[in-house]
Amino acid sequence: MLGGPGAVGLSMMVDAQAIAKLSPRQWLAAEDPASRFQATCGSLYRAGRALLANKLALVGLLIVIALVLAALFAPLLAAGVSPLTQDLAGRLAPPGAAHWFGTDELGRDTFARTVYGARATLAIVALVGVIVAPVGLAVGTAAGYLGSAADRVLMRLTDIFLAFPRLVLALAFAAALGPGIENAVIAISLTAWPPYARLARAETIAIVRSDYIAATVLQGASTLRILTRHVAPLCISSVIVRLTLDMAGIILTAAGLGFLGLGAQPPTPEWGAMVSAGREVILDQWWVATIPGFAIFAVSLGFNLLGDGLRDILDPRSR
Amino acid sequence: MAPLLQVERLDVTFEGGRAPVRAVRGVSFTLGRERLGIVGESGSGKSTTGKALLGLLPRSARVEAQRMRFDDHDLLRLSARGWRELRGRRISMILQDPKFSLNPMIRVGKQIMETLRLHKAVSGAEARRQALAMLEAVRMRDPERVFELHPHQLSGGMGQRVMIAAMLIAGPDLLIADEPTSALDVTVQNQVLRILDDLVSARGMGLVFISHNLTAIASFCDRVLVMYEGRILEELPARELWRARHPYTRALIAAAPDLDRPKPELAVVARDPEWAR
Amino acid sequence: MSVEAAPGLSAAGARDGTGSRSHGAATRLARASARAASLLGSLALTFLGLTAVTFFIGRMSSIDPVIAVVGDHATREIYDKARIAMGLDRSLVEQYLIYLGKVLRGELGSSVITSHPVLADLMHFFPATFELATVAILIGVAFGVPAGVMAAARQGRGFDHVVRVVGLFGYSMPIFWIGLVSLFLFYGKLGWVPGPGRIDAFYEDVLEPRTGVILIDAALAGEWDIFRNAFGHLILPASLLGYLSLAYIARMTRSFMIDQLRQEYVTTALIKGRSFVGAVWRHAFPNILVPLITVMGLSYASLLEGAVLTETVFAWPGLGLYITRSLFNADMNAVLGGTLVVGGVFIGINLTCDFLYRLADPRLREA
Fold first, then answer.
1. What is the mean pLDDT of residues C148-170?
2. Is B256 a member of any domain?
3. Taking CB atoms and an 8 Å cutoff, what residues of chain C touch B105?
4. Is A255 within 8 Å of C4 when comparing Cβ atoms?
5. What ipTM was reported for this prediction?
6. Average pLDDT over residues A154-167
7. Confidence class for position A14, pLDDT limits 50, 70, 90
8. Which residue of A135, A318, B273, C76 could cross-link C7, Cys pair, CB 3.0 to 4.6 Å?
9. Is the residue at B19 inside a domain?
10. How many CB pairs under 8 A join B and C?
């Protein structure tokens, strides 16, 4: 089969002719796709349809999208209200017309703070994801492909980090390096990558025995090329499922760190820290702690629902 | 002599998925204390028919029939308790692969005794005695030793014989054998079939023998039902099989490899969509 | 340790495959000892890794350890002498080995706040966490296992959906938030439970601490007032932690049972005349006991972590509270010591359970 960008361009041109004859849906659902591009689009389309059919997963997806939108368009959603403006006269006001979620102990609008708090959450989730998935993939595929001594050493390393307690270690880390989002991200990432290495390794071992890998070796492909272009792409669906499910736990851990004052620092709004701040006044002004905590719960739930749905589609045997 | 089993227009439909699947369509037959073979390829509905006779189909299956009677029990209107009383005691079933059909964690002897203890109030010692007797009846060498083994320590043939022992110990009148030898080596198949033959004859039981192996059925059974896509295409006495009229049956017979008359090419069944109507 | 343990456990029973006679007892013993040795090796290696991590964290701290000892106003001379005495002029590797030696001897330094040796502090605070985690795991098992079994038996129907939703909520719940909300509800508004803390101030120091576990000590001494009071304080945090544990245990139990109920031996049991319920509990359930026990172990380990936040919210005087208080007071020795101990226990339970889990399913031994 042809490879490289030129060939893709060619097949897209050919497809353009084909598209003209078929409706988009027919083209996507075609049983024998004419090109790799069409095949990829087709499987994405099918996965998307399956996801939409699963109502719970859909709810999860909507929640996650809401998180992203809230983070990106916070100023818009908060209708221009600043999360930082203090108003000590109007502190601890109950939810009402002026402040939809009431105000906190410094008179700041809780609704605005909750919306802006999505940024800290999204930042941590995104950063951790961007770090652990590639690292885990790299370690796992290398271990699975290279085998023998390299495999044993890498898996020992993975096992060691896998056995570490996440929260406690993050606590110690933050204690030494000081609080802040960057340190929280590093601390969480240190213990979050091992499952991906294990996953990638298992998939790699299964793939490596196949004939078509042997064929690429015979064609003269280097180990790096094989790993990155042939093996890694096949692990991606499992990694995505796992990542989505892990996000829920990572959000909880990050919020826990925030609760202890180790996440984003004041005055930046962060849900865990907001819950902690509302702790003093929980008995009388319940909204200060309850609402941001509910946001944490909702987002974590969203990722769990989405992850479950994705797993049902992409990897049904691991129910 | 009143028939043991009466089935009239049995339909089994599986709900769910894109469209309902009609696994069994209008199947009718009667059975006395004789041997009935049901032959067909995978998906012909033969196993489903067998399971329907024991009420073992999942909830997604809709079982309907004009009539389905065992002795004087109406199988269509049987309660859960009614089924529990029938199963093992009056009707029994042997499954295909003892590697999977026996519980890996429980000793063989206990699994054989289980059927007995579910239906008769016997002491532990008596149950053990009868279980050992059954192991002897299935020609197990050294029954005392086998009694204490776990299923994974048995060979395929031994496992299937244990299965037979467990299923016959409570003395049922009807036995349904669903591919009883398909998972066994050829050399062992005959041995197990002979044991089954002796036991069924000695006890005067009715037997429903389900298989895809036409040759085994022809030699073992009195009558044969040929199933295809849920329907019965032909019913005839086993010894008249070679005189079968339906093209499918004739094709099945022709497709069976024969050592005495080797053919350069194995015949393939040319399917007529009319058969599935 | 990841909460989602490996999926798809098959019929748990060592299959030798060919059906031939099983290997001799001697070979089995040899294999078992080899595996045990491997487990011990893993434990040692991982614990070493943990000490390395805590060592480096300690070094990364911006607090100058020498000044922490000699004070701000020490002269240059005293500073240098102290530095040499503390071994800080040696190479990093040497320093690590000294540190490791101390750790193995139990010398974890002294707490800045309490002035006690950290190890003594940890021993003092341990029983409270033990009490909390143990009651929680009992709740988790008592409710989670039957729920999981029944959900699997009624897969796809009403009860199954309820169990899955309840489990899902448990997975997504921030424990510190639900702790606060529960305190607000059950203590603040409804007055059903006494407030934070382990026991009312009134009863503090009344009891002779024999095991350190108040419930046991009170029962042994026949002080039922104290017992009831302690129980009232315990029930809320233990229930919340128990809920988390329940969610995980129910989910795993359900998953294991669904796998088992698909096996043919269940059909065989039905053919013999067993009721479905009978087949579920007497045939399928015993086959999942081993992996289930390892799951319980893993849950217990994660409860230790959950306790950190729970204790903070409920002012429960356990290891978690000790660590977080030390954190707020920049008491590095205490934080690192606590991390080592909690981490060590966590690692121990995790690796052992992982080991047992693989033992139960031959397929996983390769992974």
1. 90
2. yes
3. 11-13, 286-287
4. no
5. 0.90
6. 85
7. low
8. A318
9. yes
10. 87
- What is residue A102's predicted lDDT score, i.e. its pLDDT? 81
Mean pLDDT of chain A: 81
Interchain proximity C19–B163, CB inside 8 Å: no
Judged by CB atoms within 8 Å, which residues 251-310 of A form the interface with C? 252, 255-256, 259-262, 272, 275-276, 278-279, 282-283, 286, 289-290, 293-294, 296-297, 300-301, 304-305, 308
Residues of chain B whose beta carbon is less than 8 angstroms from a beta carbon of chain C are: 54, 56, 80, 84-89, 92-93, 95, 97, 99-106, 114-115, 118-119, 150, 152-156, 158-159, 163, 166-167, 170
State mean pLDDT over B223-242. Answer: 90
Name which residue leads in pLDDT, A32 or B155: B155
Residue of C178 and A213 predicted with greater confidence: C178
Out of A65-69, A99-103, A222-226, C327-331, give the one with best mean pLDDT: A65-69
* B84 is a domain residue: yes
| Interface test with chain B among C155, C263, C265, C290, by most B beta carbons within 10 Å | C265
Backbone phi, psi, residue B172, to 5°: -70, 160
CB distance from C271 to chain B under 8 Å? yes
- Specify if B80 maps to a domain: yes
Neighbours of chain A (3+ CB pairs under 8 A): C
Confirm or reject contact between C287 and chain B (CB < 8 A).
yes
Q: Do C271 and B56 touch (CB under 8 A)?
A: yes
How far C146 CA sits from the closest chain B CA (Å)?
21
Mean pLDDT (chain C, rounded):
82
Q: What is the CATH number of the domain that holds B243?
A: 3.40.50.300
Percent of chain A with pLDDT over 70: 91
Contact A136, A196 (CB under 8 A): yes
The pLDDT value recorded for residue A17 is 55
Name the residue range of residue B249's domain: 1-90+207-277
